[in-house]
What we know:
The structure holds two protein chains of two kinds. Chain A is α/β, with parallel strands linked by helices. Chain A folds into two domains: 10-273, 3-Layer(aba) Sandwich (Peroxisomal Thiolase, Chain A, domain 1), CATH 3.40.47.10; 277-426, Thiolase/Chalcone synthase (Peroxisomal Thiolase, Chain A, domain 1), CATH 3.40.47.10. Chain A has 14 helices and 14 strands. Chain A has helices spanning 25-34, 62-69, 75-84, 90-105, 128-140, 149-152, 155-166, 181-194, 212-220, 261-266, 292-306, 324-338, 351-354, 361-375, and strands at residues 10-18, 40-41, 53-54, 117-122, 172-176, 200-206, 253-260, 273-282, 315-317, 347-348, 377-378, 401-402, 407-414, 418-426. Chain A has a ten-stranded mixed sheet, sandwiched between helices. In chain A, strands 2-3 form a two-stranded antiparallel ribbon. The longest helix of chain A has 16 residues, at 90-105. Chain A is globular and about 60 Å long. The two termini of chain A are 21 Å apart. In chain B, helix 12 (328-340) links the parallel strand 9 (317-319) and strand 10 (349-350). Classes of the chains: A alpha/beta, B alpha/beta. Strand 5 of chain A pairs antiparallel with strand 5 (175-179) of chain B.
Amino acid sequence: MTLINGERRVVVTGMGIISPIGETLPEYLDSLKSGRSGITRWKQMDERIMSKIGGDMSDFTAADHFERVGKSYPREFIERANKILQFTPLAGHLAAAAALQAFLNAGLDSKIEPERFGHVLGGSNLNTDYIFRNMEVFAQDPEFIEPSYSVIHSDTDVLSKVSELLNLRGPTFTVGNHCASGNMALLCGVDLLRAGRADAVVVSSTAPGYDPIFLQGFGIINALSWQSFNDEPWRASRPFDARREGFVPSEGAAAVVLERLAGARARGAQIHAEVLGGESASDASRLTTTHVNGAVRSMSGALKDAGINLSQIDYINAHGSSTISGDAVEVEAIKAVFGDHAYHIPINSTKSMLGHCMWASALVEFVATILQMQNDFVHPTINQEEKDPALDLDFVPNQAREHRFNYALSNSFGLGGLNASVVVGRAP
Amino acid sequence: MDHYDNGAERRVVVTGMGIVTPVGEIVSEFLDSLMAGRSGITRWKHYSDRIASKIGGDMSEFEISSHLERVGKNYPAHLKGSAKAILRATPLAQNLAVAAALQAYIDAGLPDPSLPPERFGHILGGTNFTSNYILQNVNTFNEEPDYIEPLYGVMALDTDVLARVCDLLTLKGPSWTVGNACGSANIALITGTDLIRSHRADAVVVTASAVLDRLILHSWAMLGALSTESFNDEPQRASRPFDRRREGFVPSEGSGAVVLETLRSARARGARIHAEILGGASASDATWQIRPSQEGQLRVMRAALEDARINPEQVDYVNAHATSTPLGDPVEVSAIKAVLGEHAYDIPVNATKSMTGHPLSAAALVELIAVILQMENQFVHPTINLEEPDEGLDLDFVPNQAREYKTRIAMSNSFGFGGLNSSLIIQHANG
């Protein structure tokens, strides 16, 4: 069936972003245009671990953020946020700040019933920093752990706090799909709307607040960059480049508001873009390596769900995490799906600038995709210095350029063979 | 591009069930315990050192090889071999989830060529599965960062539990975890149902798992959420939903899994149908606090009935969330009365948690299996430890003794911390 109607079509009416290269949409857009890296030395990380660099938001608080960018926000939201986020670890601050931006950006002024407003939060293992600190305290003396640990440590605390802040009373849950979590959450949001379980959905996604053991775990399995670029951190995330040596972890969050096209039009909402469809596919593998087959099924399934031909895709936001095997597998999979067409379209990696926001990466990149679409350009993949011979597509090396596109594909592939792709179109 | 379809074409049925709990490591043992009213609560074997929580449903010594030794005599050898390989040196959550999923898969008569791996999805209910493993490694880390487990970066994550089940059963369709606090497994079941209704998959394994650690137990105890005072010497009496002397929930470890597929595919391949999922709903109270809301609970029960196209009078059994907390049980009873009216007094409303304790993110799946076993065997299990019903809690809780009863349509509730409510409607296999 290819019937498309206003009841089934899903559009994006609000966006929010919190990242090391921008805490508002205009800041983020500027960084994407100018190819700015957000990677630095860790500011306050245990020096004993292998990982020395990343996109560090560890001193972010929602209150500071509002101070800086929230002048025009309704007072009640700021007050409520500051109250709800007391004693909340980093992930909650990141997610709430991004979700509030998206909510206000959507200009909702209470036209959607709270009971019909859902919330899907992409990510799992969100409060690892808080859990780590409390485990250290617990080892010394159980009586001194934080009194509300049992409530606050859980991933669902982030979910509930965002839902409380925005008074979202429809279906709400977290979705974990490793580094593809953001795309999975988008897909779940789209499906909630298609199924009529909600009239609007906030999809939010956040990286965890990193703790040293989390990073050390990725260091030991050689998944992250820890060797060559510690003195020039901005050069470490170099997807597709011959000298890439692993991903560069970042903190950050993004959020969008999704609605059915008919509903968005009826309330006269500004429409940023349309989510045409998406697909999730597993490799049935617990291993850390990515597989061409799962990536191919994820991309072709997304095209089929979106009801468009591969030749219509004129931009790909790659997963491109700067790992040695991951980038090669993705390029091979893109070629397998798109054939010759792969050579004729720009394929860039937002992670070259931002690093890898892990669970939030897909949503952060979804926002990047829409900003590029709205502003008729493609951002660079920075740090392209030495070509890897097998990776011969147009990665938009080092310089942004004008490019008008209608249909974008955004990939995310997680450890454990968890793949998800979404297809985005211009605002109808 | 296919449409969401909750009509006759995409009716969703349960064709496989698996369970690992303190009252049974396979479905038949679990059934025996439900009939006999057996409690699975004991003193903690390894967790109680230095902390206030002393009792619970303890599966800390569960291990896949001895489990397969005991229950897997007729399992295909290659699946047993793979299970052992896939679970080598993994944390408890992975072991529990894989064991339950494998049971459900075999119970469903799988693999079957009519259900290709690419159309087979997997939804795992729960969050923060491996905290006990993390706790052990944090202690090591503080001594010496290089001595943590070499695969910590892989195994400490919730998605590792997901990926290991997919690997063992070759599930290549959509696959993700869903978290909704204690309502996680119900949301996982609704998500699995929606995957089938929306044609994203033709069959789905839905799994959930719960594992505890000393830190989380202690923090609940500090909050006053657990039973920590009166029943440490008689642990089997501690979980007592609706009873006047209830004093908090009794946490448990365990897992459950089911195979969902379309009625059409189940019939076509001649699978045994355990029950039908008629529908379900989830809703939030928009609060992060632990404060059960009657309004939120009745809203979600009504939405579930609407999704299932069932009138309140058609419900003839309720599996309550009933965690044995002073605050939670009365709110649920009021909400049930508000939804079902006078009819609430005419049907049994029992609490599986009186026997299993509270298996947290796995609770709704353990309870779905309890619902189905009761349907299939025409009985309702007791709510044990109901010695003196509390004032105002005057429904038929099936006190202390199982009895014969035919259920056609059941409602199963789960209400999580942070105002996360969900409800599921299940119908007997014969319609």
